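Curious: why these numbers?
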Amino acid sequence: MSHCRSFLPRSLSRREMLSRCAGGFGAVALTALLGQREFAGHLAAAESATSGSNEPFAPRPTHFAPKAKHVIYLYMDGGPSQIDTFDPKPLLTKENGQPFKMKIEPTQFNNNGATLGSPWEFRQHGESGLPISSLFPNLSRHADKLAIVRSMTSNFSEHTNANYFLHTGIGIQGRPSMGAWFGYGLGSECQELPAFIVINGGLIPPGGLDNFNSGFLPATYQGSIFTASDPPVANIRRTEASDELQQNKLKLLKQLDASVLDRLGHVDSLESAVANYELAYRMQTAVPNLTDMSNETAETQAMYGFNAKTKGTATFARQCLLARRLVERGVRFIELTCPSVGHDRWDQHANLRQGHEDNAGAVDQPIAALLTDLQQRGLLDETLLVWSGEFGRTPFAQGNNGRDHNPFGFSIWMAGGGV
């Protein structure tokens, strides 16, 4: 029986006891937490319920007073070249056309050519002397408002995974987008519109709508896709003969969903559907008011570029003006995607000059106007603007006149609240 001696009772030290039982304690704690609606992603809903509100977007108290209340994320789909926009490299210009002198890591297509200097001139702008490419003559007038970060990196060199990584922090689908986190954590100052709105020019980025998903958060917090056209949301106009008839239909749907919830308990898809029914009803009034540009002066529309002849400018101008109007209404997170239909993405594996000139030409005037407009209306200090792609481009050519993907270094800029 000597082989059983290890099973005889013996005293345990406190350290051994905690080590052996940690897994069991964790399981007990997890069981308790999983039984709480708060832990299941509904702390916000529970807090709203206790305060007498059923609004998932009700503003939440913060740990400290924030400088920014809203975010406008200017997403440049495709990977703009940092070398040709906000990160000048004079040595590349000096060595243009020569064999690249550094060891080159494998690139997306591995069709690596010679050193490629920027075809655009950089000049210093503003009191700060910030160097900005000649691609952005209008934006450069706001140089002193911009904080450029030239040390961005990504873990992925392929568009889809890089987009997920940029939007959610992980390179696969299924995680909450940053806009969803903003709505979940902070709520919104507007109860008639979603807290997270994506104004799309007609091209969905690689990775699709999962870039704007709520992941494991309640579905209410996922991004709502608006277009730059009017109306920006499909089926926003009531089809019922009267408001009363529509109200009765919504009431019946809510009762049916409630009966299912009574039987099954918490079902996120149903709870989110109920919240979305109610939000959609309020949006029927809010969205037409939002998109009615009749109260915008001709000067304002011209400043944004509504009638510009440059390819894509009018579309992005409308996206930017809608973003300002959403900020005025208290929407928490607004993402604008560029380019629009008819444009190539910022993904110039060839024909770098034409492609970047087209895309920069589409966004330069509207973004500059947005900065001016927000400042004139006293909204810039409470609105954070972020301009970014999913990665950068290589300092050497792909083929003769393009640049390959470069996740090892790229640039973004920020302006406005907190910067």
